[in-house]
Amino acid sequence: MIIVLAVVMGFLSSLSSLFGMSRKDVNIVVVGLDNSGKTTVLNQLKPPETRSQQIVPTVGHVVTNFTTQNLSFHAFDMAGQMKYRSTWESYFHTSQGVIFVLDSSDRVRIELLKDELWMVLDHKDVHARGVSM
């Protein structure tokens, strides 16, 4: 998890530099298989005083708004259960970034994880627009 958070914090710094020093609104989509830690990663990106103390599985999606490093984030935390994965793509066209969270200890589902990651990377609204990931 520490590695993922370091990558995400670098992602935030890159976005902040890309958009300049003035405050900007940024839409991000947080995806990954169920139980991979998406909500936990998103919770850690929020300022400490706004972090949730209890994390519950996401059903459908949850919109989380927070501000950090001169960026005002509108994060779409998407459920990772199979029945919800087809809804991910409807949020890509309005996003400036996608955070794909994976649980590297879930070796049983590594092939499924690989397939879902490629689906996101190859999606026209991610690939053609060069959405940050």
Please give a handful of descriptors for the protein shown:
133 residues, alpha/beta, Rossmann fold, 4-stranded mixed β-sheet, 5 helices, 35% helix, P-loop_NTPase, Small_GTPase_ARF/SAR, signal, GTP binding
What features would you describe in this structure?
This protein is of the alpha/beta class and 133 residues long. The chain has a single domain (2-127), classed as P-loop containing nucleotide triphosphate hydrolases (Rossmann fold, 3-Layer(aba) Sandwich). It contains 5 helices and 4 strands; from the N terminus they run H-E-H-E-E-H-E-H-H. A 4-stranded mixed sheet has the order 2-3-1-4, with helices on one face. A hairpin with a 2-residue loop joins strand 2 (61-68) and strand 3. The protein starts with a helix and ends in a 6-residue tail after the last helix. Mean pLDDT is 84; it is low at 1-7.
Number of domains: 1
The stretches of 5 or more residues where confidence is low (pLDDT under 50) are 1-7
The proportion of residues forming helix, as a percent range, comes to 25-40%
Under the CATH scheme, which architecture would be assigned? 3-Layer(aba) Sandwich
Q: Rough shape?
A: globular
* Topology order in helix (H) and strand (E) letters: HEHEEHEHH
Gap between N and C termini: 17 Å
Widest sheet, order of strands:
2-3-1-4
Q: What is the overall number of helices?
A: 5
- What's the total number of strands? 4
Estimated radius of gyration = 14 Å
Portion of residues in beta strands equals 15-25%
Q: Tell me about the biggest sheet?
A: 4 strands, mixed
Structural class: alpha/beta
Arithmetic mean pLDDT: 84
Q: Regarding CATH, which class?
A: Alpha Beta
**Annotated CATH homologous superfamily:** P-loop containing nucleotide triphosphate hydrolases
